[in-house]
Structure formats: structure tokens, C-alpha cells
Specification:
The protein is an alpha/beta fold. 38% of the residues lie in helices and 16% in strands. Helix 3 packs across helix 18. The longest helix is centred in the middle third of the chain and has 23 residues, at 354-376. Bound molecules: adenosine-5'-diphosphate, ligand TPW and magnesium ion. Residues 458-460, 486, 488-489 line the site of magnesium ion (MG).
């Protein structure tokens, strides 16, 4: 009704908004375009209205997978990925992913609806009652609750800033059901929203810290650079490559930093990893932590005690000296730190001694030749290497595809065999070595980048998120899943030592056909038993962009217990003596 048509004397009706719309408007104002989640009370309408407002809302079959999708969206874009869940059980399902995101330094916001404060706080037994804020707090970087519609703008702004500034991580945002229905004046609502300015401010390293790092580096005879997923996250790919090339220092990429510089780069020392870890005298850590994945920076793997000096670039000051002494801590964002090092190196930087680099090249040549022999075999049934040779070539031919990888042997062998050529193309089990990231990562990777995904997953790993093949079909995503089916966890050959009729704890139904799961939702399923069949099936999937699951039959006896980290697996001394 126009003003001219209004009855004489009537007040014009004030335009109103409510909690639902304010949450959506706050997210959209801050450039968040996608929500990953599972609907239900009290957030069903939030998903619907978000979709109606032009956001992309990807509905999953389980919150953990939606949460993993949000986490990897954060890693790929440097903006927080958002996961939306219902209260108590839905929240708890999402919390695993939030904790994993925090552990991996991925920015993510878990938004969960919750039941009414009055009832929760008196523990009177509300529908899906839980004090979610208290539960989330120890498992993430920050946790907030919003009680008034007028505070939604601030709440969302705080969540975004907490997720992406400094060391990125997971943030929990608790939104009680009543909040969504709260009504307020639309103009006041608009004014209450906050657009976060400069959410991840540059953190410039102190000039004295830069000088100290360069002094240590100048004194090195056998320097090494280790690139971690923090370096990939930073998206300063050209500067990192310039630093590596100008310095002439050999480098190794941690798993998810593979491809930040192509793995085929002459300075890549991944094929001589043990040698460079052991024999280097100065190690420059760039966005990588000295945690279990690097045996804490000490022990046999690192050569004699006291033989190393570490330079570490990290945005988190408390990371320094976490495991060993850091001779030159360089605290700041990687972009600023790398740029400062490049400036400080000047134009007459001395390359590392040829003795060091040629020793590494010799070792690389030997190891690459050894690997070529293993990859050359065409064993029947397929072992890991004969299948992975095919997939290595697929990525070589399609370097912009995103590789998702989980499992034990399936992970460790694929990481070693498959070269990556572009930054942030390898997504895997990360710091925790967690199973179940596969389908969530695959879905978000293609949604966020528009690139096709090749997911190489063990049959056990796949089972943790396998139901999301329906999601992949529903959204018709270009995802090709290759299940390395060896009938079990590590191997499919274990027997129950008690002699009882239950199967051993590590084996699954023999000859299972995971490809048929995909077919049941309208996707393409293929069963393959040879490298040639595998190659044809993957090429067809990548060419078509259709959801595809390839059940790759792998020799059940080919794997080893816990893949490459069997040494971390405690074993009972008693079993050897006959005890079960
Ligand atoms: P990897 O597992 O590849 O070794 P980690 O996850 O252990 O890598 O380490 C990543 C590190 O990168 C973390 O310590 C984190 O604080 C740091 N980091 C993440 N983003 C940045 C950034 N933009 N600038 C500086 N450091 C960063
Ligand atoms: C959340 C423990 C590590 S690896 C793995 C499990 C169960 C599966 C290995 O079998 P898969 O690979 O995937 O078939 P392969 O090629 O060796 O046969 N629960 C969680 N995370 C982890 N890491 C585990 C259990 C585990
Ligand atoms: Mg297996």
C-alpha cells in the first residue's frame, strides 16, 4: 500500500526484523556466502531463510561432516567456514569438527541452536537440553552466546574476528531458540550489524627478530626449510617460493604444504627426508609445528643432540620453545615475516655449500630410483603402489584437481607417491590424523573452489563419512571417490585370536562393494581390480565431473599395521607368550 492509499490518520507501520534475519544479514554483511549444516529445532527456519536470502546452504546427513566441510572451507578461503547445527546431540556431533579445526588452526564457526537458558540453568529437562557454551569452551579458541537480537551483529563480528585473527581456530556461537523470534525495528537492526574491518590484521615481526634470524641463517652450512600447512594457509605463495629460490635452501613440505611449491622443484628434498632432518644444522620452520609429526624436533631422527638451530616463523608466540629451544623466533604473520626476510637477504645472498646440496641430490636420486621399481610393478591383486601409480599420473595430468586423502596405508603411501603441483590442493587427516574428514572435505573443497575433487580413502576411513555420498549426488558435485578396499583397517587378513566365531576387530565384510552405495543414489559406481581399469574409471569420472565411487580392490595382505606410524602403536608384551 502506498502512502497515498493509507487511511487518513493511520500511523505508517514500522518495518520489523527478527533474530533469524539478523543472523543471516550479519553473516552476509561479512561476506559469508555458504552454510554447512543439518536442520532441525530450533534452526530449521534459519537454513530456509538463509537459502531464501541468497546464501548457499549445504545440508548434510551428519553434523560432523558438515563441520569438517566448514573447517576446510576456512582453510581454503581464510574466511571462517560456518557450520549450523541443532542443540545438544547435533551440537556435540559438530563439536568434533570444531575441536579438529582448532587443533589444525583452521578458522571455523560452529553455530548451534540451544534450548532456553531458564530451563537449562535449572536443569529442568528441556528438549535436547545442554549447557553447550560450557561444553564448547575448552575445545575451541573462543565461545560466545547471544541473548538479545540487538547483540547479534556484535556476536557474529566477535566470532569472525576470533576465528581468523592471530592463530586461526574454531569458534562456537550459541544461539538460544528464543533469540530467533525476537522482533526489533528493522532500521535499528541494520544499525546493530557490524562489518568486521581488517579481520586478520598483519602482524609485523620486530626488525631485531628478523636480523637475528638472518644471522643464524648466514652461519648455516647445511640449512633446511620446512614448510607447513600454516604457510599454505597464508596464501603468500609467490613470496614463499621467492624466499626458497633466492636462498637456494633445500626444503621439505609437510603433508598439506605439498604443492605450495611443486613437489618436482629441484630444491624439494622430500625424497631425502631422513637425510635432511638428520644432517641439517639450521632448520627454518615456516608455518609448521614441532609436534609428533616431526618427532617433537628431537630424537634419533634429528641427529645428535645439540646439532641443530631452529628459526621458527609463526603467528603464535607461545609456539616458540614448545618442544625444543628456538634460536631465532620470528613472530608475525607469514606474509610479513617472509617479506622481511627477503628484504633483509639483500642481493648478494650466498647459496648453501654445494657439498650439502649435492649430497641431498645423490640421496634423492637413489630413493627415487628405489620408488620407481616399486611403482613399476603390476601386481595382481593390486597393492598400494600399483594403484597409486595410476592416481599419481591423474594428478600430474590434472594438477588443479583437489586431492582429499585419509586412511592409514592409503594415506601414508599416497602422500609419498603422489606429487602435488599447486598450493592448497592436498587436504588430509591433519594434525590429529583423524578419520572421517573425507566426504566433508571433498564437498566443501569443490563448493568453495569450483575445482574437481579426487578423494583417495581407505575402506575404513570412508566408512566414517560414507553416507555423504548421498549429499554428493544430491548437489551433483564433481567428486570422484576411490575407496582402497583391502577388507579392513590396515589389513583384511587378521583372524580372531580366540578362535571364536566373531570376526577379528580390524576386518570388515570381505569383498564389500562400496561402488553400489553410490549407484543407489544415482551416481556412477565402478568396481576395479587392475591398474588399467582404475585408470579408465578415474579418467572417465574426472572428464564427466559426475559423482563417482570407484571400489579399488587392494590385496588384503598388502598393508602394514598403522601404516607408517606403527612405532606409535603400543603392543601387549603378553600376546607373544600366548595370551590373547
Ligand atoms: P603442519 O602440520 O603442516 O606442520 P601445523 O598445523 O603444525 O602445520 O602448523 C601450522 C602453524 O602455522 C601453526 O603453528 C599456526 O600458528 C601457524 N600459522 C597459521 N597461519 C599463519 C599465518 N598466517 N602466519 C603465521 N603463522 C601462521
Ligand atoms: C576418529 C584410528 C587410524 S587409521 C584407521 C583408523 C580406524 C583406518 C585405517 O584403515 P583404512 O586404511 O582407512 O581402511 P588402510 O589402507 O590402512 O586399510 N577413529 C578416528 N581417527 C582415527 N585415526 C582412528 C579412529 C585409525
Ligand atoms: Mg583398509
Amino acid at each position: 500500500m502506498s502512502a497515498a492509499q493509507e487511511p487518513v490518520g493511520a500511523e505508517p507501520e514500522a518495518e520489523l526484523t527478527d533474530g533469524f534475519h539478523l543472523v543471516i544479514d550479519a553473516l552476509m554483511l561479512n561476506g559469508i556466502k555458504t552454510i554447512y549444516g543439518v536442520p532441525g529445532i530450533p534452526i530449521t527456519d534459519l537454513g530456509r531463510l538463509a537459502q531464501a536470502s541468497g546464501m548457499r546452504v549445504i545440508s548434510f546427513r551428519h553434523e560432523q561432516n558438515a563441520g569438517n566441510a566448514a573447517a576446510i572451507a576456512g582453510y581454503l578461503t581464510k574466511a571462517p567456514g560456518v557450520c549450523l547445527t541443532v542443540s545438544a546431540p547435533g551440537f556435540l556431533n559438530g563439536l568434533v569438527a570444531l575441536a579438529n579445526a582448532t587443533t589444525n588452526c583452521f578458522p571455523m564457526i560452529l553455530i548451534s541452536g540451544s534450548s532456553e537458558r531458564e530451563i537449562v540453568d535449572l536443569q529442568q529437562g528441556d528438549y535436547e537440553e545442554m549447557d553447550q557454551l560450557a561444553v564448547a569452551k575448552p575445545l575451541c579458541k573462543a565461545a560466545f552466546r547471544v541473548l538479545h537480537a540487538a547483540d547479534i551483529g556484535i556476536g557474529v563480528a566477535r566470532a569472525i574476528r576470533a576465528a581468523v585473527s592471530g592463530r586461526p581456530g574454531g569458534v562456537y556461537l550459541d544461539l538460544p531458540g528464543k533469540l530467533f523470534g525476537q522482533v526489533m525495528d528493522a532500521e535499528a537492526g541494520r544499525r546493530s550489524l557490524v562489518k568486521v574491518i581488517d579481520p586478520a590484521p598483519a602482524q609485523i615481526p620486530a626488525p631485531s627478530a628478523v636480523d637475528r634470524a638472518l644471522d643464524v641463517l648466514r652461519g648455516a652450512k647445511r640449512p633446511l626449510i620446512i614448510l607447513g600447512k600454516g604457510a599454505a594457509y597464508a596464501q603468500v605463495d609467490d613470496d614463499i617460493r621467492a624466499l626458497v629460490e633466492k636462498s637456494g635452501i633445500p626444503y621439505i613440505p609437510m603433508s598439506m604444504a605439498k604443492g605450495l611449491i611443486p613437489d618436482t622443484h629441484p630444491q624439494c628434498a622430500a625424497a631425502a627426508r631422513s637425510t635432511v632432518l638428520q644432517d641439517s644444522d639450521v632448520v627454518v620452520m615456516i608455518g609448521a609445528r614441532l609436534n609428533w609429526l616431526l618427532s617433537h624436533g628431537k630424537g634419533k631422527q634429528w641427529g645428535p643432540p645439540g646439532s641443530k638451530k631452529f628459526i621458527q616463523i609463526d603467528i603464535e608466540p607461545r609456539e616458540m620453545d614448545s618442544n625444543v629451544e628456538i634460536a631465532a623466533p620470528l613472530v608475525g604473520d607469514i606474509g610479513s615475516c617472509v617479506a622481511a626476510l627477503l628484504r633483509g637477504m639483500g642481493d648478494d645472498w650466498k647459496q648453501p655449500p654445494a657439498e650439502w646440496t649435492s649430497a641431498i641430490d645423490a640421496k634423492k636420486a637413489t630413493n627415487i630410483a628405489r620408488m620407481a621399481t616399486r611403482l613399476g610393478k603390476n601386481s595382481t591383486p593390486m597393492d598400494y603402489h600399483s594403484a597409486l601409480r595410476v592416481l599419481r599420473d591423474v594428478i600430474r595430468d590434472r594438477p588443479d584437481a583437489i586431492l582429499v586423502n585419509e586412511g592409514a596405508n592409503t594415506l601414508d603411501q599416497a602422500r609419498g607417491v603422489i606429487d602435488m603441483y599447486q598450493p592448497r590442493k592436498r587436504l588430509d587427516v591433519g594434525t590429529w590424523g583423524v578419520m572421517g574428514i573425507g566426504m566433508g572435505f571433498a564437498i566443501a573443497a569443490t563448493i568453495e573452489t569450483g575445482k574437481p575433487v579426487l578423494a583417495i580413502v581407505g575402506d575404513s576411513a570412508f566408512g566414517f563419512s560414507g553416507m555423504e555420498v548421498e549429499t554428493i549426488c544430491r548437489y551433483n558435485l564433481p567428486v570422484c571417490i576411490v575407496v582402497f578396499n583391502n577388507d579392513g583397517i590396515y589389513r583384511g587378513t587378521d583372524v580372531n585370536v580366540s578362535g571364536g566365531s566373531d570376526p577379528a576387530t580390524t576386518v570388515f565384510v570381505k569383498g564389500a562393494r562400496y561402488d553400489r552405495m553410490m549407484e543407489s543414489f544415482g551416481g556412477t559406481g565402478v568396481n576395479v581390480t587392475t591398474p588399467d581399469e582404475l585408470k579408465r574409471a578415474v579418467d572417465a569420472a574426472m572428464d564427466s565431473g559426475k559423482p563417482t565411487l570407484i571400489n579399488a580392490v587392494i590385496d588384503p595382505a598388502a598393508g602394514s599395521e598403522s601404516g607408517n606410524i606403527g612405532n606409535l602403536n603400543p603392543k601387549s608384551a603378553l600376546t607373544k607368550k600366548g595370551g590373547a
